[in-house]
Amino acid sequence: MTFLGALLLASASVVSADEKTPCHSLSLGAMYKGAQVHVGLGARWAAEARAQAGNSGSDVGQIDASAYGMRLYRYFHAPTRLRLLMGVEGAATRSSASEVSYKTTGTALGAFLGAEVYATRRLSFNLDVGPYFLSTSVKDSGISQSGMEIVINSSINLYLL
User: Which end of the chain has a smaller Cβ tally under 10 Å, C or N?
Assistant: First the structure.
């Protein structure tokens, strides 16, 4: 009887430990004017597709801008409440003006360091920062510009699995 009781107690502690382990397989997330889908590729790797879109008024009418990209994450340890991470990102950018013939295309390539903090087993907040190379060119002209910038990203994630 003691063996059976110990076995039940051990299995109960495994179940409750598993219930406390943060999810990390699949999440939907939100960031400023955007959304993302985050897919775990094991305990220490993840990939993410993200999209952002926005608009603003200017001297040449409303400017509409969008960015679509992919991120690859490397976590320093298996899932816990606080996960330190590093990663790389590549994105394509576009913008256009409503009242004039003005369109741009560009790229953003960067590396980042950050952390993901779990508020609950399925809800996390992410913050990262790093240098990004940004390049853009205006269509139908020879104008282009590129440079390095420090970029800060933040998001909230709801893990489904």
Answer: N
